[in-house]
Amino acid sequence: MLERIWPFTRLGRDKFRKALDEALEKAFEGADFEPSSELVEEEGRYLLRAELPGLDKKDVQVYLEGPFLVIEAERKEEQRKRHLSEIYYGRIYRSIPLPADARPEGIQARLRRGVLEVEIPRAPSPGPSRRSIAIEG
Q: Fewest C-beta atoms under 10 Å: which of 1, 12, 67, 75?
């Protein structure tokens, strides 16, 4: 068997790569895809960005579930004869814990050029946490 997929010949490398791809597909079948994301802190807000190329806003849901912001979508597979496919098709799911000072009211989301941007307002800072206390006596 090893001779048939020996990776040091061109034909062997191609067979090896195909066998590996098929094994990985089976291993991760049914697994959700997590989009590349970043959450940055800005003055008065947090900004979450998630890459969702090729999706329209009708395909994407953003909602709160407890202390988490959830992004859910699905990329439908088109039935065509493929010669190469490296695009993920299926369920896309990402759950991101909100920071402690995030305010759930006023969250806004927009999808532009394949990037989902979610603005999350921050609660105003309570000020200094140190306060003097008078001593009686």
A: 1
pLDDT along the chain (137 residues), means of 10: 54 73 65 87 94 92 94 86 80 92 93 96 80 84
DSSP assigned state of 32: P
Half-sphere exposure of 43 (CA within 13 A, CB side): 0
State how far the Cα of 28 lies from the Cα of 106, in Å rounded to an integer: 37
Residues 65 and 11 in one domain: no
Number of domains in the chain: 2
User: How far from 12 is each of 18, 22, 35, 67, CA to CA, in Å?
Assistant: 10, 15, 33, 50
Query: Are 45 and 76 members of one domain?
Result: yes
The CA distance from 53 to 35, in Å, is 9
Which residue range(s) make up the domain with 41?
32-121
Backbone angles phi, psi at 74, to 5 degrees: -145, 130
Check residue 109 and give its pLDDT: 97
The reply to whether 23 and 80 lie within a common domain is no
Give the H or E element holding residue 92.
Answer: strand 90-97
Residues 76 and 12 in one domain: no
d(CA 71, CA 96): 8
